[in-house]
């Protein structure tokens, strides 16, 4: 069984994100084409949709379930700092629309698998749709590698 490493970093040196943007420009371009940027109208729409879904599914909760999107360059710089090895697993709990799961799979096709677990069915459906669009795109781009992805609603 492949090893799993967990890494929580509170701060990131801005230079690392700039270097990462250059190194992973293709990944950032593809993921941004699928989802828009974290400051795009699509991202704000997903956030509003998530808040509405949380309120409907969990009416007694205040704001424990909060949807937000992570900057891709910073995320990929964090992932680079962990230096994933072949066969290792990436896991995103609360994966939302799957942006980071797909980004990890594209940036590190050596991963054994990139998993996303999402509680909200609407966000999970968005993740499955994006994964489907990416799979269709990659059929025409055989030179682009991707690690296996698994998206779960649970």
**DSSP strand tally:** 3
Order of helices and strands: HHHHEHEHE
Mean pLDDT: 79
List the total number of helices.
6
Distance between the termini: 23 Å
Low-confidence stretches: 1-16
Estimate what percentage of residues fall within beta strands. Answer: 5-15%
Q: Give the radius of gyration.
A: 15 Å
Main beta-sheet strand count, sense and barrel state:
3 strands, parallel
Give the % helix: 40-55%
Spatial arrangement of strands, main beta sheet: 1-2-3
Helix/strand class? mainly alpha
Give the overall form. Answer: globular
Question: How would you sum up this structure in a few lines?
Answer:
The protein has 154 residues and is mainly alpha-helical. Helix content is 50%, strand content 10%.
Describe the structure.
This protein is mainly α and 154 residues long. The protein has helices spanning 14-23, 25-35, 41-57, 72-82, 99-107, 121-139, and strands at 89-93, 113-118, 149-153. Strands 1-2-3 form a three-stranded parallel β-sheet, covered by helices on one side. Strand 1 (89-93), helix 5 (99-107) and strand 2 form a beta-alpha-beta unit. The longest helix is centred in the C-terminal third of the chain and has 19 residues, at 121-139.
List the helices and strands and how they pair.
Elements: H1 14-23, H2 25-35, H3 41-57, H4 72-82, E1 89-93, H5 99-107, E2 113-118, H6 121-139, E3 149-153
Helix pairs in contact: 1-4, 2-5, 4-5
